[in-house]
Design goal:
Length: 197
């Protein structure tokens, strides 16, 4: 019994230290989506063209995240209703879209994230991470007809008490997927407005 009583304070101290080492993290998007309310945009041409997509770059979660970038691009182009077919690399098509997905932003921690790390996330910290796409459109003869660039501000709030809000917020992967889809939709609308297809 005496050994059990002596171990109790160490157990409590260990549990308290472990609870201090966990923190919550929630991802947020800057600003509103640049996609207009008209979805899908109405085609001007009576005949729809086919489009071949080539998605490259480094996805938001590294090379593994590039698969989701491809899925979101295909979904956005299919949902637009502007194309007779949306195909991936290699197949002949009326149009080709080369999409580069990149992370843009600081490579280091912001001062608030550093303060948060020093205080074991008791003081909130914010880390910015921008998502950028550059889409180049080419015709059947591989002549470039135009380029559209889009950027979406993203960020992570890190704080101990966000741990309790995490089950009620969308995961970072869900937010990144939604941001990519919205960026592709905005790109399609801009390209359609400029008459690229």
């Amino acid at each position: 019994m005496e050994g059990c009583v002596q171990k109790m304070p160490w157990t409590i101290i260990t549990l308290m230290l472990l609870s201090l080492s966990t923190s919550g993290c929630i991802m947020v998007r800057d600003g509103a989506s640049s996609v207009s309310g008209q979805q899908p945009p109405q085609p001007v041409q009576p005949a729809k063209k086919s489009i071949a997509l080539h998605v490259a770059g480094i996805g938001p979660q590294g090379k593994e995240g590039l698969g989701d970038s491809r899925e979101q691009a295909v979904k956005a182009y299919l949902d637009s209703g502007l194309f007779s077919s949306v195909i991936m690399n290699g197949a002949p098509a009326d149009l080709h879209a080369d999409i580069a997905v990149l992370e843009a932003g600081d490579d280091g921690l912001s001062w608030s994230a550093a303060v948060s790390a020093i205080t074991f996330t008791m003081i909130p910290g914010y880390v910015a991470q921008d998502l950028a796409t550059r889409t180049s459109y080419r015709d059947r003869q591989s002549k470039e007809v135009g380029t559209i660039e889009k950027r979406q501000g993203m960020g992570f709030w890190i704080q101990f008490f966000l741990l309790f809000a995490m089950p009620f917020a969308d995961s970072p992967t869900t937010k990144l997927s939604a941001a990519q889809y919205d960026m592709h939709r905005a790109t399609i609308e801009d390209a359609h407005r400029k008459g690229l297809f």
